[in-house]
């Protein structure tokens, strides 16, 4: 049985994601995303489950920063959850003056709050479930939570299915120390973080390495290096698996071009969308071309 640290406490969306990614494993709630990553790095957990991006609010920066720093962790699986919220309130019927949640959650219900709780002040909490704990303890009057939080925290259900944007989704990663990679499935995602020199055209050069190999980018986020203005780390997700010749070829080219490159994993996509393969960019095209060069070198082909 593995120990999975997840961004908790109990009743977060991340707990739901961890349950879809694990079977019979021990789930360990921790208060923050850095704490979940640290638990794996310190050997207190075998894997960590954390959110990485939301279709409305974009990247979860604590996860990106945590993956760029310290010992390497790689994603071995992902989960995609639909995101709509339940609003839980104190049970004494007092007016609601504060409404707490994770900043990503508050951003996804801004319009709903303006219409339905116009007098309530939004307050950032470390997670949606931590906000519910805060309401139980009398710190806040209401919390914007995952639907499952209502089962863990006995509070008054003020509203369900709350979301400014229908069909919002959050993607979660299961992260482990480097080891055996998941098998390729044909519908995989590879993630990297690249440090590039601050000069004209570097980002375009990196993207061109993918584009010329017919590799479809699925996410691009820039995070500051926290040093000089203008210096960024580029987080890229693209279709394909490192075991494929076309992806290996692209990674080798990126490795040459970047001042620093971290491989953050190749794993099956939760939506099972198969990679788009451009003409001339199939794995057979890459291996065939390498074989041809070898034959020419041996003097077998003109
Ligand atoms: O606080 C939680 O419940 C989380 O799992 C975090 C998180 C996020 O980081 O985006 C997950 C999904 C929702 O988009 C809102 C919050």
Automatic annotation (TrEMBL):
<comment type="pathway">
    <text>Amino-acid biosynthesis; L-phenylalanine biosynthesis; phenylpyruvate from prephenate: step 1/1.</text>
</comment>
<feature type="domain" description="Prephenate dehydratase">
    <location>
        <begin position="3"/>
        <end position="177"/>
    </location>
</feature>
<dbReference type="GO" id="GO:0004664">
    <property type="term" value="F:prephenate dehydratase activity"/>
</dbReference>
<feature type="site" description="Essential for prephenate dehydratase activity">
    <location>
        <position position="170"/>
    </location>
</feature>
<keyword id="KW-0584">Phenylalanine biosynthesis</keyword>
<dbReference type="InterPro" id="IPR002912">
    <property type="entry name" value="ACT_dom"/>
</dbReference>
<keyword id="KW-0057">Aromatic amino acid biosynthesis</keyword>
<keyword id="KW-0456">Lyase</keyword>
<dbReference type="GO" id="GO:0009094">
    <property type="term" value="P:L-phenylalanine biosynthetic process"/>
</dbReference>
<dbReference type="InterPro" id="IPR018528">
    <property type="entry name" value="Preph_deHydtase_CS"/>
</dbReference>
<keyword id="KW-0028">Amino-acid biosynthesis</keyword>
<dbReference type="Pfam" id="PF00800">
    <property type="entry name" value="PDT"/>
</dbReference>
<protein>
    <recommendedName>
        <fullName>Prephenate dehydratase</fullName>
        <ecNumber>4.2.1.51</ecNumber>
    </recommendedName>
</protein>
<dbReference type="GO" id="GO:0005737">
    <property type="term" value="C:cytoplasm"/>
</dbReference>
<dbReference type="InterPro" id="IPR045865">
    <property type="entry name" value="ACT-like_dom_sf"/>
</dbReference>
<feature type="domain" description="ACT">
    <location>
        <begin position="191"/>
        <end position="269"/>
    </location>
</feature>
<dbReference type="InterPro" id="IPR001086">
    <property type="entry name" value="Preph_deHydtase"/>
</dbReference>
<dbReference type="InterPro" id="IPR008242">
    <property type="entry name" value="Chor_mutase/pphenate_deHydtase"/>
</dbReference>
<dbReference type="Pfam" id="PF01842">
    <property type="entry name" value="ACT"/>
</dbReference>
């Amino acid at each position: 049985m593995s120990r999975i640290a997840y961004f908790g406490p109990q009743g977060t969306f991340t707990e739901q994601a961890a349950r879809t990614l694990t079977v019979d494993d021990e789930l360990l709630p921790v208060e923050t995303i850095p704490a979940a990553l640290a638990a794996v790095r310190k050997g207190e957990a075998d894997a960590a489950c954390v959110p990485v991006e939301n279709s409305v609010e974009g990247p979860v920066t604590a996860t990106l920063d945590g993956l760029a720093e310290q010992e390497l962790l790689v994603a071995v699986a992902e989960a995609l959850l639909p995101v709509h919220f339940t609003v839980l309130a104190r049970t004494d019927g007092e007016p609601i003056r504060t409404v707490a949640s994770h900043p990503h959650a508050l951003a996804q219900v801004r319009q709903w709050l303006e219409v339905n709780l116009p007098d309530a002040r939004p307050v950032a909490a470390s997670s949606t479930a931590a906000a519910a704990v805060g309401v139980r303890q009398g710190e806040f009057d209401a919390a914007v939570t995952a639907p499952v939080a209502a089962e863990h925290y006995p509070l008054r259900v003020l509203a369900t299915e709350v979301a400014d944007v229908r069909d919002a989704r959050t993607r979660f990663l299961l992260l482990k120390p480097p080891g055996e990679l998941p098998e390729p499935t044909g519908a995989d995602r590879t993630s990297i973080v690249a440090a590039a020199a601050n000069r004209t055209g570097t980002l375009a050069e990196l993207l061109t390495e993918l584009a010329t190999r017919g590799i479809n980018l699925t996410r691009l986020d820039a995070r500051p290096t926290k040093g000089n203005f203008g210096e960024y780390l580029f987080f890229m997700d693209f279709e394909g698996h490192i075991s494929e010749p076309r992806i290996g070829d692209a990674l080798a080219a990126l490795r040459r071009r970047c001042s620093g490159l971290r491989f953050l994993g190749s794993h099956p996509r939760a939506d099972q969308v198969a990679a788009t393969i451009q003409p001339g960019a199939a794995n057979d095209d890459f291996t065939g071309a390498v074989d041809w060069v070898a034959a020419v070198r041996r003097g077998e082909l003109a």
